[in-house]
Specification:
By secondary structure, the protein is mostly helical. It has three helices and no strands.
Amino acid sequence: MLIGGEWIPIMAMAIVPITAIGWPLARAYAKRVEHGDVAGRVPPEMSARLERMEQAIDSIAVEVERISEGQRFTTKLLSERTAPSSESDRLPPGR
């Protein structure tokens, strides 16, 4: 199949925008591949700060767990103290 004379200007008009858009995109991609992913690297001071934040959050989680355990224990003690344990506890004194 031979390309007719009418396809030459159409192809020329299509190739120009494709090249104008594709060339900078190809160059940007090549630079990224050549230099590596700069956005993926974390600076050392940021890494140290994130490590300290992680340790602080872990210690807060442990303290919250201790508080909740104490709250459960206190609630258990209060419920055992106020709830009657047998039938004789519910009768008024002297009977």
